[in-house]
Amino acid sequence: MTDDVAVLGAGMHPWGKWGRNFVEYGVAAARVALADAGLEWRDIGSIVGADTVRGGYPGYVAGATFAKALGWQGARVASVYAACASGAQAVNTARAQILSGLADVVLVVGADAAPKGFFRPAGGDRPDDPDWLRFRVLGATNPTYFGLYARRRMAVHGDTPEDFAQVKVKNSALGALNPNARYRKAVTADEVAASAVVADPLRLLDICATSDGGAALVLSGMDFARRHGVADPVRIRAVSTVTPRYPNTVLDLPDIATDSAAAVQPAAETFRESIARAAYEEAGVGPEDLSFAEVYDLSTALELQWYEDLGLCGEGEAAKLLREGTTTLGGRIPVNASGGLASFGEAVPAQAIAQVCELTWQLRGAAGDRQVAGARVGITANQGLFGHGSAVVAVR
Amino acid sequence: MSRTRTPVVAGWFAGDGEDFRLIGTRCSACTSVFFPREDGSCRNPGCPGGELEKVALSRRGRVWSFTDSRYRPPSPYVTDPELPWEPYTLIAVELESERLVVLGQAAPGVTVADLTVGMEVEVVLGVLHEDAEATWTTWQWRPTGVTA
Description:
heterodimer; A: alpha/beta; Peroxisomal Thiolase, Chain A, domain 1; about 35% helix; about 20% strand; B: mainly beta; 5-stranded mixed barrel; 4-stranded antiparallel β-sheet
């Protein structure tokens, strides 16, 4: 187990399709987080930015762009990119600086301004890039991978499109309670069923949108938090950022094929399961200790997959867990009380930070109408392209 | 005007008709198979490192999962924006002896309604698209027993 890191402040710019520069969202979120922490920007010794890839250079090299917009003040700066896990790696970079004594208090910022339509690879003729190749050779958009996973669950576990729709029904009802969510209207199963098929068996309302948004956290060591007058802060106890292990036998974005298991026996657990296990081990907790979870529901079917990968239920039992109401607000283990990506849409470098913002508000008992009663231990889970994934455990 | 038949990616497949195969590589030391072909070094972390040799993959496998693309994918996928979008099917296929799953487009005319997980399919040479100079060829999956 590692030492805890305190969450002094959390902030967001509301998600939406605002059509402005990502810097504006990141700076707005940073100011909210600083105010929440009761700190001035000049008090911050280090800033870590999570990079968008849609802003020229990686987010104009994100940490520095946010620092300049807030006003150069000489802070240590770092920027990270890890696809959808960028935000979690930014949190982990800040944590490593704090635990090693390089910084007392660190500002973490991620923001994105997403284009219309499908995410697509960077331009140019780049046949060495697996992401470019899957579009060039197969036209395989992100939703087609989500469709493959959903169909596989239907065949192996007996999940139905109606089960998937119920994830959207649950998350949209919760998102309606969240002022930072982009979609704040409850959706019915009939509305999901009436939406257009994007990638069989998934429909438009099964798949998360791409959004603009920004999220920020102010993190510090426990000593700094006490000196700052915060005796009992929300604490980050674990950040898992492990890679897959060879052979990775689940077809992951943006790959055209899996590794071969012909010569080497695959590990008993999948990549996603190993992300969660590493977080549990570092935090010294297990799934039975969780009060709630925030998972990366890029599609409705993927939320169900996470139930099993986090160990909330056995393999193939996720739809049953959902149907029993276990994962909604008031259930034993609410999942995506924030409304999830279903209600936010994905603002890639901000999203894993936003998940930790939600943990913070829930653990403080400050989540308003979507509050999980008695929240003590929360976990986030996330997976992105190129073998990236993350899980963060926070406690109070 | 005659167009040249050009593979969309060089070296990933070869042959014609019954002899058409996906081409991967195999490590001479640990026998790990790679597709798309790995030509740098063996990616098995427990392998001392062998020579990567060209290997033809099994022609037939079983459907691991399938989906389709109801909307026009963005560039670099090549489509004619003047024509209405025709959805195509994608199939992920598990090759038994190589123990890997390979994604590919289905042969023309194969829809999701024709497929079930576990069904046997075979790899066939297909056309991805044509332009002024070339007919760009690719691999496609087709249920066995179905003739084009």
